[in-house]
Amino acid sequence: MRRASRASIVAAVLLLGWAGSAAGDAARPRHPQFGYYELDKILDAFRSRGFVVSGEIRPKTATVSDSADRVVEQVRKLLDSGLPAGDVTVVGASMRAEIALLAPARLQNPEVRFAIPGACLSESVTGVVAEEGEGPSGRLLTVREASDEFTGTCPGWKQDPEGAPSLVVREIVIHTGLHHGFLYRPLPERLSPVVEWVDGASTNQAAEPPK
């Protein structure tokens, strides 16, 4: 049986992150230091491993709140179709982590998985709790790069029963030396932990402190 029959990655705006033009076309994002964001290759890397990937461009007019509601809607449709909650994974990288964390706070399903590379979880969850009145729920993986100037000094995750009691976390720190650019291409160091997370290999593992 192909793995695609039981696992879905809801990528949408969360994986690609950038908004499309008014006409609905996606400009290929290019960073002056890190180069082009290789979205197609990242999506293909997941597809090549047998996963069903859903992706779409976020309209420029969509707010973070609108985008989070859209993700919640997508997840609920998958669940209503009969897909087990544990086989649905939402992937959101870098600044799209705000959407990827807001969605589980509104969804409140402890079995749905979330993978958020390039985000400081300890700081982001605090912001979500302050905004929503409750923390995100689910099984969450974060992959941070030690040289990333945005998250390199991020405090390691510590479980907060009051802020996010139904959030199960695994935190991984990698060392590619690529700074924030590690998000721009389908590096095995970045994607392999996410694939394992989607597969459920890390479901019951406790949070891993930064190395």
Q: Sheet bearing the most strands, described?
A: 6 strands, parallel
Number of domains: 1
Q: Roughly what percent helix?
A: 25-40%
Show unreliable segments: 1-6, 11-26, 201-211
CATH superfamily: Alpha/Beta hydrolase fold, catalytic domain
Based on Cα principal axes, name the global outline. Answer: globular
The number of distinct β-strands equals 10
Under the CATH scheme, which class? Alpha Beta
| Strand proportion | 15-25%
Spatial gap, N to C terminus = 37 Å
Number of helices: 6
The helix/strand order is EHEEEHEEHEHEHEEH
Return the CATH architecture.
3-Layer(aba) Sandwich
Question: Rg to the nearest angstrom?
Answer: 16 Å
Q: Mean pLDDT score, rounded? A: 77
Structural class: alpha/beta
Query: Order of strands side by side in the largest beta sheet?
Result: 5-1-7-8-9-10
CATH fold name: Rossmann fold
Explain what this protein looks like in three dimensions.
By secondary structure, the protein is an alpha/beta fold. The protein has one domain: 3-Layer(aba) Sandwich (Rossmann fold), CATH 3.40.50.1820. It has helices at residues 12-16, 39-47, 64-80, 97-107, 121-132, 188-199; strands spanning 8-10, 19-20, 30-31, 35-36, 52-54, 58-59, 88-91, 113-115, 138-145, 167-174. The strands form 3 sheets. It has a 6-stranded parallel sheet with strand order 5-1-7-8-9-10, with helices on both faces. The chain has a two-stranded parallel sheet with strand order 2-6. Strand 3 and strand 4 (35-36) form a beta hairpin. The longest helix has 17 residues, at 64-80. It is globular and about 40 Å long.
